[in-house]
Amino acid sequence: MWKFKVKQKVVEIGRVKIGGKPGENPTVLIGSIFYRGHKVVKNPEKGLFNKEEAEKELSRALELSDLTGLPLMLDVVGTTPESMKKFLDFTSSNSDVPLLLDGLSNETMIEGLEYSKETGLLPKIILNSITPETKDVVLEKIREVGLKNAVLLTYGMKAIISSKGRVEVAEQLLSKAKELGIENVLVDTTVLDIPTLGMASKALFEIKDKFGVPAGCGAHNAVSQWKGLKKKLSHEGIVASTAASCILPVALGADFVLYGPLRDAEYMFPAISLIDASYGQLLLEEKIKLSKEHPRFKIP
Q: 0.85 cut: is pTM over it?
């Protein structure tokens, strides 16, 4: 069913394999924690939060990951260097999954990279993200600490207006990542709203087809930026719409999806595991061997 012009690269970060032919390796789900508005956070600048509630959310996501066979990664959002360090300590102490270092300022990203190097976390850290606008001071720190994993975000005026523009920006960022010594890249094709979800989904297939690297997107943005949705739909309608937004890119070959708040794992993992299980069966028909932990064997 899936035919690409180039061989598909599979990267391994921590114990998670990502990439390859759709259905071969389970879709990686990336949930955000300590983001702006996350109710467990009491003071985002100082990194104060309700550890009991955060542990509950994380524990449930890890449980759903195990039940469905879909790997979990955490997008760890930090407002300040102080908070980022505390959030990295918590997530690394309570899980062994790869962590996306998502600093909301250059200073936070730089301090986060230094701290990850000092504490030995760097091998499972993925910088989120490198864009065409990433400042030289951050790029220099990436090279200095020896970071090997990063999300390349195809964001910019050129990319926003078309899927073709996203592919062109991806090519530029792949070249930049190579110069920096980054070995494992995840290309995020940028979703800002409903119209860009379609362009991002098309672009990720084209990027895999042209470069063979793992690609995906933050599909939940299509719904989170849907103005007036809460006035028009019930909570159940919003949940269904969010799940649908993440299913679309996966059905078109996405290797990963940033699905939004970590707590949404409750419905994201079941929904996407169904797609993975169905594609897994197609690969079995092609005599391609799948891991025993694949959703094809987990959810029936």
A: yes
